Amino acid sequence: MGDEYRENDNYNYDPHTHEQKDGFQGSSDDLDKRIEDIKRLVVQGANEAQQRIKRVVDRAGGYWQQSQTTPMPHQPSSVEEHRIRQLANMWSNQNWRVARELGTYMEVRSLRTDEVWEVTLETRWETRTMEIVNEPYQGRNVGMPRPLLPVWDYQLADVVGLKAPLTRTRLNDLDEVVSCTNCNSTGHVLCSNCNGRGWIVCPECKGRTKKRCTTCRGRGYISDVTPGGEKKPFFQRQADTLMRSVSGKFSDALDGIRQQGVPVPNPMDTDPASKGPVIPCPDCVKGEMPCTCGNGKRVCDVCEGARMALCNNCAGTGKLVRHREIVRSFDLRTQARIVGESVIPSQYLEKSHGDLVYSAEITEPLYADAPPDEVPNDVWRSAVEMINAEQRQDKPGIDPQTQSRPTLQVVELVRIPYTVVDYHYADQDYTLYIYDNEGQEKFYADSYPVRWDRIDRLFKAISNDLLTPAPGAAPGATGTPTSSEESNRGYKAERTTGGYRVPIEFSPYEPEEEEGEKKPEKPDDNQGFNGNDYRYR
């Protein structure tokens, strides 16, 4: 601010006439007045915020007492109401979101019972396919084959259980004796091990008639004995023997890998020439010794040199027995339907146990007009519709012999009772649904008293007090000018929403223009603001 005053002094000073221009004194008075107005508004806003906080603190104790106040307990008027209150307490103890001891403090308005039915239909679908299987001929007379029928025309053994595994059933009196095409009815084929040659390449020498010496490992020399009759200690001799044995086995493994064409280096130095004097190997010539095969060949172990082997398909008989098998695969499908009106979602009701009223295997047609005992007409009618719709799932344009068919159906009718409880709690009305059998009760509610509802109301009350102005405050006491003041002074205030903010206002006074004096221009938004750039132009 001091720099600005100095710059303003230089600006108002006329270097030609060496005189101070008029008007600077008036501008200084306006700035001082503006600063005083800003200080007054800031202090006034801080006082207002302090008064509101003090008022909230004074009332916080009362709000807390109100939030901790619990409703009066209610006594049950009947045995059924006593049971409902116990169940409500159990629900509130299991669910941390529900108010504690709900059954003790809720005011029961009405109780009513109702029921829904769950219809469950389990259908086992069977798919049949026919496969041709060949087996070696055993010399048994098969007789004349019978005509071949469609797969669903054969009466097969019953399969027990809804979840049945895949089964194979051989059809009798359909066997045929045919010639083996693999061996052309000879019963013999070329040996697959030697490709009909009767011999194989020697696996030891690879057909070279010579193999590597095992004594010197193909080097042609071995280490000499210890010179001068020097004798090593016992433990040193044992360690050297163990080391030679391990290094020899490791070198053999690496040599076998190298013979397969993989260039693997030997990290262990097993060359005896690097450890002392050596002598020629007495068991070989230049590291090679004759192979036991003599000519690089071995007689085939499979055909023993006969070049022919028995046919695996016909076991050497030259004939096959062709028979047919019906392969039966099963697929279980389950359908469930809730019959009756209830607010409880179906996915919750399907997980309940209920009372099993009717369960039977469908072996004959069912009629909708003949329900079993203790089963309502609408429930039985819905079950019959499900069964008939499941049995009539034929696909048009497809051969019926290749389609799956329902071979076993089991229907179950389960009664699920529930109780509707209308109650009043904390000046609000709620509804609770208790369903399933006694001892297995489950609960459902669209809305319920929240355990932290009182604390929530406490914070809401405190927030309302913070946002509410002090009673009896004069208009404009909060630092916000009235509409008349805004119109008279040209005041433009930025309105804010949300929480409480201490109002800070700009001075409503604006310096009047004098002759030869211009208003200061605001700096460009695109440039950085600097107090030295704010000058009268």
From TrEMBL:
An example Gene Ontology molecular-function term: unfolded protein binding
Region (Disordered): 1-30, 466-537
Matches recorded under InterPro entries: HSP_DnaJ_Cys-rich_dom (IPR001305), HSP_DnaJ_Cys-rich_dom_sf (IPR036410), SSUH2_homolog (IPR052789)
Source species, domain of life: Bacteria
Compositional bias (Basic and acidic residues): 1-22, 486-495, 516-525
Biased composition (Low complexity): 468-482
Protein name: Uncharacterized protein
